[in-house]
Amino acid sequence: MSATDTIFALASGAGRGAVAILRVSGSSSGAILAAMAGRLPAPRVAGLRRLRDPGTRETLDQALVLWFPGPRSYTGEDSVELHLHGGPAVIAAVAGALTALGARPAEAGEFTRRAFLNGRMDLTAAEGVADLIAAETEAQRRQALRQANGALAALYGGWAARLTRLLAHQEAAIEFAEDDLPTDLCDRARTGAAGLRGEIEAHLADGGRGERLREGLLVAILGAPNAGKSSLLNALVGREVAIVSARAGTTRDVVEVRLALAGVPITLADTAGLREAGDEIEQEGIRRARSRAEEADLVLTVFAADATPDAETLRWVGPDAMVLANKADLVPAPAMIGGVEALAVSALTGAGLDALRARLTESAARLAGASDAALLTRPRHRAALTEVVAWLGDAETAVMPELASEAFRAALRALGRLTGRVGVEDILDVVFADFCIGK
Ligand SMILES: Nc1nc2c(ncn2[C@@H]2O[C@H](COP(=O)(O)OP(=O)(O)OP(=O)(O)O)[C@@H](O)[C@H]2O)c(=O)[nH]1
Ligand SMILES: [K+]
Ligand SMILES: [Mg+2]
Question: Could you tell me which residue ranges the TrmE-type G domain spans (predicted)?
Answer without folding.
Answer: 216-365
